[in-house]
Amino acid sequence: MKIDTSAFGSYDIRGVYPETINENLAYRIGRTFPLLVAAKKVVVGNDIRKSGPALKQALCQGLTDAGCHVIDIGQCGTEMIYFATFFLETDGGIMITASHNPKEYNGMKFVQKGACPIGNSTGLCELKKLVEGKLPEKSIYTGRIEAYDITEEYVQHILSYVDVEKLKPLKIVVNPGNGAAGPILEVMEKYLPFNFVKLAMDPDGNFPNGVPNPLLPDKREMTIKAVCKFQADIGIAWDGDFDRCFIFDEKGTFIDGYYIVGFLAQEFLQKNPGATIVCDPRVNWNTIDIVKKNGGVPVVCKSGHTHIKKKMRDVDAIYGGEMSAHHYFRDFAYCDSGMIPWLLIMELLSQAPGVCVSELFRERMEMYPISGEINNKVNDPEAVLKHVEDKYGSMGEVSKIDGISVEFENWRFNLRKSNTESLIRLNVETYRDRELLQEKTAELLMLIRNDG
């Protein structure tokens, strides 16, 4: 029988349950994953999706039939699998999640020893082939499943990134969006002085308030209204598996993740002079400017968590960030966290009495305005990329780290194709010129759409 592996992507597995991801696929992954990473001990967990427990049961059956000792940390966020993998020194970790996809989806993310990511170039293609092939014989030793609550160890590790004693009783709107962050925030609250205004705290795989993905403007309204209504100092929202957090200032204005990257880079460089910071090429002038002014070394890397994590390890970067609100930390095994960033912001706010969130970011937002990522459906992405390069490449400085980036004296753009769809993604950035930003964005969109 042919096994449907269409859910395998570039960085993880995602599909509709039970059509393209189901118990049969989960079992086969369990049987073959130990071969990929020579695993004897694997940590597993799931987010709040309804299909998670059934998929995890099948996955664990496959792992134990392969002779693995399975540590099940239960319902959790993706970064808790990262943490458990390096903290408990397991040979690998598997998180059952579909992040911000609709509720009918589910998927898996994989890491090996040390929480190193597994993507297409680091083993995911091999895993796919193993799953499609004949399963190996069952182990003569059946592995065991151990339930382990790692919440307290995880929370204490996350809190170690800030000086809790210096935090002030600021008012924070917290919105997990009925995702996995709610229970963790309840535990963290015991150790923090903050006044939490809580929204959508109960984990619910039916997503009664909509799928939590605050990158989409229509998913921000609840947080914005609450910040204004309760006159909060800041609003914070998370996606379903809380590996990303999203910041709103005291007026309810959404702060683009790009500016958070620069902010966190500065914070780390002030504590670690001369450190290396990794960023992605979609928009980066603000980050590079901040890193250089603070004596750091900026390194630009292709976007995507497997690329960023590898580059950070290669150059021993203390921090890396993407405009998509993924933030990576060396002391977190170079993994991304949706809990560490907001704590660092709160630490600075606590040490700057009278300063509000909007003041932390206003100057940089005015200095380097951005278009935001604009997706365009096209018939032939490669042809569009070539046409744009032919038109602009000779006039500016070209980079092909990720798609094509072209830089001019006071503006730049990045154009790249989607890994999974016939889409072209455009980002434009200028230096202190919103009018030029609008002009060049419209100009590029006209060229792309005429080609598409």
Automatic annotation (TrEMBL):
InterPro entries: A-D-PHexomutase_a/b/a-I, A-D-PHexomutase_a/b/a-I/II/III, A-D-PHexomutase_a/b/a-II, A-D-PHexomutase_a/b/a-III, A-D-PHexomutase_C, A-D-PHexomutase_C_sf, A-D-PHexomutase_CS, Alpha-D-phosphohexomutase_SF
Domain Alpha-D-phosphohexomutase C-terminal as annotated: residue spans: 373-439
Species this chain originates from: Selenomonas ruminis
Cofactors required: Mg(2+)
Domain of life according to the entry: Bacteria
Single GO molecular function: intramolecular phosphotransferase activity
Protein name: Phosphomannomutase
Alpha-D-phosphohexomutase alpha/beta/alpha domain sequence ranges: 7-121, 152-252, 256-368
Protein keywords: Isomerase, Magnesium, Metal-binding, Phosphoprotein
Pfam families: PGM_PMM_I, PGM_PMM_II, PGM_PMM_III, PGM_PMM_IV
Family per record: Belongs to the phosphohexose mutase family.
GO biological process, one term: carbohydrate metabolic process
